[in-house]
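Query form — protein Thiol:disulfide interchange protein

QUESTION: What is the three-dimensional structure of this chain?
INPUT:
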Amino acid sequence: MIKILVTLFLVLAMSACSEPSHLGSDGNYVAGVHYRELATPIPASGDDISVTEFFWYGCPHCELFEKPLHKWQQTMADGVVLVQSPAVWNEAMKLHAKVFFIVQQMPDKQKIHAALFNEIVGLREITDLDEQQAKLSDFLAGYGLSEQAFNDKLNSADIISKLKQAMLLMSSAGIQGTPTILVNGRYIILNESANSAEQVMDIASYLVELERQNLLAM
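ANSWER: The structure tokens for Thiol:disulfide interchange protein are given below.
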């Protein structure tokens, strides 16, 4: 069974002009209200501060979140990287995650990535994974990837390794819904505390700076 999605449906329906909720006395976002800190932070894989979005192509609210997410990406300071990581709770989502990693190796990856949300939302009622796989193969053939190349990549050691890494990251972070933002393996943003998708990204900016200060103090 697909887990209940923690979506931005209510957040996006609320006015972006509303006052931020429950700010601290210093005007900053508050742990336990706007974000939670992992009991065991996930070690960073590099020197950059990572902002990871866990998403699923079959989640319409993840598609809605794409525009504010990538708009925010354009404002990121040097030393901050955005990572999109597919959520996986069942076999269908494993297939969708593998498709994501295949697309990341293609020349038109951004265009294909955007189109895949609508494509996979339309496949959610198809329970036969072989049928889903065939339709996704046809879809990617439209972008120049042959059926043979698709099937070869789908079962390649590289793609399977990336899938395992994504599942391990999701498990380590305790992700239970999409879209969810994880800042540098340490902070999870609580979507329900925000008044808009843009405020979710404002919380991300605050946590990036908080993490930067933490790292400087070490």
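ADDITIONAL NOTE: The chain has one domain: 9-217.
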